[in-house]
Amino acid sequence: MERSGILGVFHHSDAVEEAVEALRGQRPVDITVFTPLPHHDIEHAMARPESPVRVYTLVGGLTGAATGFAMPIWMSLDYPLITGGKPIISLPPFVIISFELMILFGALATVLGLLVNAFLLKPKASYAYDPSFSAGSFGVFVVPAEGRADEARAALERAGAAEIRAEVAHA
Length: 171
Prior knowledge:
Blueprint: E1 2-10, H1 13-26, E2 30-34, H2 40-46, H3 53-78, H4 91-120, E3 138-143, H5 149-159, E4 163-170
Antiparallel strand pairs: 1-3, 1-4, 2-3
Helix pairs in contact: 1-2, 1-5, 3-4
């Protein structure tokens, strides 16, 4: 899949942050930022939605906790062994099993959620990449809405892009 857009090359992260905020106001189709290192201010400027992986973790943990109580209760009822006159189903000993299964299922669900979101639900990857992005420069690739390419180019220029060029991204 090919997408045409505008690539802006920046030398300072503050300019990238300013460009992203200006472009977000224009509602372009897609914005991709290339940085030589993780940068939290740029990530906040992108205002991406929170990761759905935490939902996988919650569901996995709750499933593990429920399994941790259900499995020993089912086994105790299937093989009733009365010890010292205590009830067959006693919840305090099952809490340990429930806790351990909650951690195990939560961790496995987190890995599953990561894999699903990283590989299956990420169909649009942009490869409008410049080798200077690994040498300290920053890049902003924007796919503007129909007929709004000039506004996107102007926003990149106002933010202080060192270089602006039209690119075709291959996904």
